[in-house]
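Training component of the fellowship. As part of building independent skills, the fellow (R.M.) carried out the full modelling exercise for a liganded target. The chosen ligand was glutamine. The inputs are recorded below so that the supervisory panel can assess the work.
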Amino acid sequence: MCRHLAYLGPPLTLRELLFDPPHSLLRQSWAPRDMRGSGTINADGFGVGWYPDGGAPVRYRRAQPIWSDPTIADLAAVTASGAVLAAVRSATVGMAVVDAAAAPFAEGRWLFSHNGVVRGWPDSVVPLAAALPVRDLLTLDATTDSALLWALVRDRLRAGAPPARAVAETVTSVAAAAPGSRLNLLLTDGHTVVASVAGHALSVRATPTSVLLASEPHDDDPGWREVPDGHLVTATATEVRQHALAAP
Ligand code: GLN
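Fellow's submitted model of the complex:
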């Protein structure tokens, strides 16, 4: 199962966020503490998206272990941003291992990640997929559950839903269609981040000027707080809110 994180706050280098902490995303790629389901390590790809000077996001994603790519290490040392979303991937058995299957998925200002699995894939969610424009199905990033979840969230965002509603409705409808799914989603536009906690762990560390959400705390700072299952977190750099998923 994948591990992901989102950060909003004063600019940090990608190295400070992804590589330097004692239990960094890099370390979580080969020694995660909390893997549920079938995965053991997160070696099937990784991706990071950031917002240069507050502009539209830039992404770098690859279908190889984060530890085996010298480019990301070099890039991370010289790239700083006040808004970052990153993930390391453990592909669900049978799902494509290609660059475009790694989070973040993106459109406009949005960056998106999924940690988990849709049970009964793909049959369980055919009725939900059938409600999407055919064009979206023909242009999915990859033939994976995560890419379809992004298409479902994006469809709601395009229709004008606020991000918290787009995430909550997607989680609720997919959970109903595919019981037992694990649906930890992360969505940001660089100012706000929305995260669902549904089947996997998520921890939050907030300071007066920053917020970091991560599948696993990346250090032993006492400020980390685990979000209970079945909740939605909505955060800016200065405010964190939490609601039960059924009532966002
Ligand atoms: N089902 C997702 C995929 O195959 C897996 C994400 C995860 O949490 N491992 O990409």
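The panel noted the following from the submitted structure. The mean pLDDT is 95. The chain is about 25% helix and 30% strand.
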